[in-house]
Specification:
Elements: H1 3-13, H2 22-35, E1 39-43, H3 46-56, E2 64-67, H4 74-81, E3 85-88, H5 100-106, E4 111-117, H6 126-136, E5 139-143, E6 151-152, E7 155-156, E8 163-167, E9 180-184, H7 187-197, H8 230-240, H9 243-264, E10 269-270, E11 277-278, E12 284-287, H10 291-300, H11 316-321, H12 330-338, E13 339-342, H13 350-368
Helix pairs in contact: 1-8, 2-8, 3-4, 3-7, 9-13, 10-13
Bound molecules: pyridoxal-5'-phosphate.
Pyridoxal-5'-phosphate binds at residues 45-47, 71-72, 74-75, 117, 143, 145-146, 167, 169, 180.
């Protein structure tokens, strides 16, 4: 947050529209320009975005939606909000992204969509996923909460899937406090997403405002109130001015971690980044032996490591309501056992990075003894 961000928010607080005002369209236009998308729809969170992404597809009840277990719970929960069933497909052992071969094994007549996550910021193999989706006539939703500015074949994420979702929670690349957005190239879907964002009502408050505007409106779909405020969008517009710098620094940090780890800790595994892709580096994850011990030792040193994520199928809610067994997801289990996220954020300096890697080496050694 800098003074520009603060000024942008204060300006809206002094203006006529706190919500449903002009800053929302301006933010959406900014996102379209950056991503190269036709339609951006800003909402109040990434989770809301996922919810209406599924709702917009108007799937029959009990439809199956395939997703990865190595993600934030929201990627699967959105299926349940819409009376659909989340089905987990195992991940690839090297990229940690959902495995297209595993997806194919799970597809049946009830399968209507795939929600793939660009884990840690690394785009999935979109070409392969598109082939599967087209041949089986199912929708693709991209959970790009980690991947604003990531690239596949030199093109930014946000136009590959039928609908792409982004999050602007403070831990993500840019923030609006809470917030999210959807992008789609499909006009019909875009229109439905706009309806679903605001109760399914077809005229906005601004369109019903003023001396010549009538009062009438229709409710066409069972929408939600997932509107984002102009206050938040003003912050988003200001943050987007800095996205290149934010991403650049994340890439530098990732490069430095990679170099130091390869040199000094070759036993530590890192995420494989295929040549046709550029990660947005939301996370920098490593696989270490004795992870829980290493985690505790690193925290004791004051290094805020984390674990992204506990596989969704392990949560008691999923355990209680679905027949899922750990052994069905061998790659997820193996990766999760060693998974550790190292600190990565704009202000992290080079000495910090060296300190983290040195400490990681010490903690791994200590955890073994
Ligand atoms: C952050 C995140 C979300 C949800 O975003 P919110 O804005 O926090 O609701 C969804 N999916 C993934 C993978 C995320 O990391």
């Amino acid at each position: 947050m800098d003074q520009q961000d603060i000024d942008a928010v204060v300006e809206v607080l002094k203006s006529d529209w706190l919500t449903t005002g002009p800053k929302i369209e301006e933010f959406e236009k900014t996102l379209n320009q950056y991503i190269g998308s036709k339609n951006a729809i800003a909402v109040n969170s990434g989770t809301s975005a996922l919810d209406i992404a599924v709702a917009a597809l108007e799937l029959p009840a009990k439809s199956e939606i395939i997703t990865t277990p190595l993600t934030f719970a929201a990627s699967a929960n959105c299926a349940l909000y819409n009376n659909c069933v989340p089905i987990f497909a195992d991940i690839q052992a090297d990229t940690f992204n959902i495995d297209p071969t595993e997806i194919e094994k799970k597809i049946n007549k009830k399968t209507k969509a795939i929600i793939y996550v660009d884990y840690a910021g690394l785009p999935c193999d979109i070409k392969q996923l598109r082939e599967i989706a087209d041949s089986k006539d199912i929708y693709l939703i991209e959970d790009a909460a980690h991947a604003l500015g990531a690239e596949y074949n030199r093109k930014r994420t946000g136009t590959f899937a039928d609908i792409t979702e982004f999050s602007f929670h403070p831990v993500k690349h840019i923030t609006t406090g809470e917030g999210g957005a959807l992008t789609t190239e499909n006009e019909e879907i875009a229109q439905k997403l706009r309806l679903l964002r605001t109760h399914g009502i077809d005229r906005s408050a601004r369109e019903r405002f003023g001396p010549d505007a009538g009062y009438a409106y229709d409710m066409k779909m069972l929408g939600r109130n997932y509107r984002i405020t102009d206050i938040q969008c003003a912050l988003g517009i200001s943050q987007m001015k800095k996205i290149d710098r934010f991403l650049q620094r994340r890439k530098e940090i990732a490069r430095k971690y990679t170099k130091l780890l390869r040199e000094f800790l070759p036993q530590v595994r890192i995420q494989h980044i295929p040549d046709d892709r550029e990660s947005a580096w939301h996370l920098f994850v490593v696989l270490v032996p004795n992870r829980d011990k290493v985690f505790n030792l690193m925290r004791k040193k004051g290094i805020l490591v984390n674990v992204h994520y506990i596989p969704t199928y392990k949560f008691s809610y999923y355990r209680t309501n679905f027949k899922i067994e750990d052994k069905d997801y061998p790659n997820t289990e193996r990766v999760y056992a060693g998974l550790l996220s190292l600190p990565i954020y704009y202000d992290l300096n080079d000495e910090d990075i060296e300190f983290v890697v040195r400490s990681l080496g010490e903690c791994i050694k200590e955890a073994k003894s």
